[in-house]
Amino acid sequence: MGGLRLALGPVDYVVLGAYFAVVLGIAFAARRSVRNSLDFFLSGRSLPAWVTGLAFVSANLGATEILGMAANGAKYGAYTVHWYLIGAIPAMVFLGLVMMPFYYNSKVRSVPEFLLLRFSRSSHLLSSVIFAVASILIAGVNLYALAIVLRALLGWPLPLSVVTAGVFVLAYIVLGGLSSAIYNEVLQFFVIVAALVPLTVLGLLRVGGVSGLVERVTDTRGAQFLTAWGGTGFGEPNPLDANWLTITLGLGFAVSFGYWTTNFAEVQRSLSAKNLSAARRTPLIAAFPKMFIPAIVVVPGIIAAAVEPALGRGVQYNDAIPLLMRDLLPNGVLGLAVTGLMASFMAGMAANVSSFNTVFTTDIWQAHLMPGRDDAHYLRVGRVVTAVGVVIGMGTAFIAASFSNIMDYLQTLFSFFNVPLFATFILALFWRRMTARAGFWGLLAGTVAPIVFYSLYQAGVVPIHADQGANMVGSLVAFVVDVGVSVPVSLATAPKPDAELAGLVYTRSAARDPGVAEPGDQAWYRRPAVLGWSALVLAALCYVPFSL
């Protein structure tokens, strides 16, 4: 995007400046509520479901969504809706209905801490290191995306843009901790939606409406570019180079459940809810706006593929949204759109940095390096580690810069880190016979396997011709290897006594435990089962326009 510049006017800068002032104001206000480490890392477990629900979806509305999914839309077309409908909603429902009672009732402060209780210190340390590395790498993606916008706005070189963006995000997390991040994420959700709706509307007007878009894309990319399932039979060609089985099992099961049920940047939002009912409803509430995000992210990517012929031919797919902003939006609206982009990237980075500081402080520093210190010590460490995480994220941003489509990079990271964690978690939760040694060696093997597979793909040994197709297969490899190692090791080693597994292994009574209820929690429209099944049915209906 070296030659792309966005010409903002005075009104645009006023909108942008007002947003940054509000963000820092929220951080200063949240600072007053941070009295101990629980407040800093989990908002004192005091937030209502609607706040944590919007923060849950907003935390994912970072570079993953805006630049990444728009890039996917421009590169792969309507196949990108799979990442929302089969690749998000079922897993979010599973998290709310099945897994959240065990996370929340065990009073863990992080996802790795669950493995400490279920298995051993070695499994806990390994999972903590994996989480910390993954969080920083993903934070770097969001930081790189924010730097892209700063470079387009001001013409700054990438290093200066990365440093400036990182310092601002650091300021509001250090000030207010998770509460600052979450309340800013609620604000950012509405800013992002308000910013991207005009881009979709003006883009459709530019191409002559939906019918005009269909005609243009059909002429340039083929009719299959606008279908979600077309060409996904075995041996049939499609842009993903993936068939319906790898889409369903690789993306819909391994990647999706691995990300949404074990990614602490998301689970942390549920753990900050005020009671179990609110914690379970958090991902279920988030599922409803999540399934409609393609209308303001994927559709603009497809529009960009139709009106920006240079995409993928000398211009990175990552530039799809900025190109449309430059070519379609008038002053004033452009400022709102740029503000929305910056909001999305800061939300994504803040989510990963706040999960990094929690995991490092509670699961590595407190549990393994410096146990037994007072709470004030861990609060100070959390703030220092936040700064360290941002600095490291500045470095990992340059790894993201080497990918034309950052979604390809992100899905690679998910196959490396999230999928084996999910395999270990699902066995730990549903199989009492799963042992501590199996948890460690299964997780280690499941993490190494997709890295080896990806290396073979990059070397041309694996005959797959699209990054996303390779990521789906790599995710299946990670899951199968993890389970394939964990099961025999479990059968060969001694499990924990049943008395030590109370509350850590699935039982119907534990899954149905309502926890401490508040007035209104029993209303039918707040029941997790009603919300969950409604989300699944609606997601299935959302496939209809892309299946005709």
Automatic annotation (TrEMBL):
Residue ranges of the TM segments: 13-30, 50-71, 83-104, 125-150, 156-175, 187-205, 242-262, 283-307, 333-360, 381-403, 409-431, 438-457, 469-491, 529-546
Entry keyword set: Membrane, Transmembrane, Transmembrane helix
Compartments (UniProt record): Membrane
CDD domains, per database record: SLC5sbd_u2 (cd11478)
First-listed, main subcellular location of the protein, grouped into a coarse class: membrane
Topology term for the membrane: Multi-pass membrane protein
Record-stated family: Belongs to the sodium:solute symporter (SSF) (TC 2.A.21) family.
Name of protein: Sodium:solute symporter family protein
Taxonomic lineage from the root: Bacteria, Bacillati, Actinomycetota, Actinomycetes, Pseudonocardiales
